[in-house]
Amino acid sequence: MRTALVIGTGLIGTSVGLALSARGVAVRLRDVDPHNASLAASRGAGSDAESQEPVDLAVIAVPPAHIAAAVVAAQQEGVARGYLDVGSVKSGPRGELASLGGDLSTYLGTHPMAGKEKAGPLAASADLFEGRPWVLTPTPATETEVLNLALELISLCRAVPVVMEAEAHDRAVALVSHTPQLLSSLVAARLEAADETAVRLCGQGIRDVTRIAASDPDMWLDILAANPDPVADVLAAVAEDLTETVASLRALASADGVERSEGGAGISDILRRGNSGRARVPGKHGQAPTAYQTVTVLISDEPGELARIFADAGQAGVNIEDVRIEHAAGQQAGHVQLMVEPRSAASLAAALRARGWAIRAR
After folding, report:
1. Locate the ACT domain: which residues (predicted)?
2. d(Cα 346, Cα 354) in Å, to the nearest integer?
3. Same structural domain, 203 and 269
4. pLDDT tens readout for residues 42-59
5. How much is the pLDDT for 230?
6. pLDDT at site 322
7. 195 & 79 share domain
8. How far is CA 176 from the centre of its chain?
């Protein structure tokens, strides 16, 4: 692949442009909003100058409701040898493309499993896809050349190709992406009218749960409108669990000992099922999750402090597997949680204490 056209210069499209440009591909950019294309070009994602020369691959990075029409228009214009989209829903746009008379042989539906709670070209980055799954949904009609172009794109973006049926993909993302977005928004919505005293008590747990609730509502409405039934199926199952959980909690408040016992059993069951499900979420590099041990360090909010703590950990010969920062409310300080292999926790804590860091006891 030497040339590409990115149609739609939001977060994903601009990130594709940045990744391809960084690896020597000549990228052209196009957007219904010329300002977005110009902004993406200014960041190095490609050129927003119009050209009649066909490219090797056209990447359609528009909302799901507009994918089919955008692909058909690009095919009729003859802008590329192959066409793929990067939308988060696959079966609907492909069916619509067929009904509009689009050429399924030169088209491939794909979905990079990467994103941010922020949208637009300013949020884009060349490394957005590194190590992330990138789903391909080929059909018997898909030309080998188009599949190879898609695989080359994924390689250039340093993502990991995963082949799936379109319908299976849509059910999967309903569970692991679309439903979590709604649940995060539902929890965050409880905070909208909450007493200020309660909001000031927010800790890392509520921040973790509500992080993606900061996403663009219009963008998510487009996504959910393209995949409503699978998401509704998952939410219906969650609603059943919620109903049972509410009943169990009410039982815990009962004066009847048997009812309290049954309520406790119900809550224990959902917590245990949560443990079991969480254990299936892939860990580092897609491997089975590892039970890391946390070393918590008090850190001041000053330039260079994070770099210094990582350097000290490196001097101790300990690899940091993951990190979180919990800010202290109303103070210029916080806690850095360093996740390490259990066998390294004690030596890291000792080494950091020796270098003057305050370690919080577990």
Report:
1. 294-362
2. 12
3. yes
4. 999 999 998 889 999 999
5. 95
6. 81
7. no
8. 10
Query: For position 217, which CATH number holds?
Result: 1.10.3660.10
Q: Domain boundary at 164, 193, 208, which? A: 164
How many independent structural domains does the chain possess? Answer: 3
Check whether 71 has a pLDDT greater than 80: yes
Residue 332's pLDDT band (cuts 50, 70, 90):
low
Residues 106 and 16 in one domain: yes
Do 142 and 26 lie in one domain? The reply is: yes
The answer to the question of residue 287 being in a domain is no
DSSP assigned state of 47: B
| Assigned token pair, 88 | 């988060």
* Residues 152 and 174 both lie in one domain: no
Contacts 24+ apart (CB under 8 A), 145-151: 145/81, 145/82, 146/81, 146/82, 146/83, 146/84, 146/105, 146/106, 146/107, 146/108, 147/108, 149/1, 149/56, 149/57, 149/81, 149/82, 149/84, 150/57, 150/82, 150/84, 150/108, 150/110
CATH value at residue 335: 3.30.70.260
Average pLDDT value for residue range 291-317: 85
288, part of any domain: no
Which residue in 73, 76, 71 sits closest to 110, CA to CA?
Answer: 71
CA distance 121 to 41: 9
> Rounded to whole angstroms, what are the CA distances from 297 to 128, 328, 350, 355?
29, 12, 12, 12
Tell me, yes or no, whether 297 and 272 share the same domain: no
pLDDT, average across residues 9-35 = 96
Instruction: Compute the average pLDDT of residues 32-45.
Output: 95
Average pLDDT, the chain: 91
Task: State residue 44's pLDDT score.
Answer: 96
**Joined tokens for residue 193:** 């009218």
Do 257 and 219 share a structural domain? yes
Of 164, 187, 205, the domain-final residue: 164
Alpha helices in the chain (DSSP H): 11-22, 34-42, 64-77, 91-99, 144-156, 166-173, 179-192, 196-199, 204-210, 217-225, 228-252, 257-278, 305-315, 342-354
- State phi, psi for 237 to the nearest 5 degrees: -65, -40
Q: Residue 98 is part of which domain span?
A: 3-164
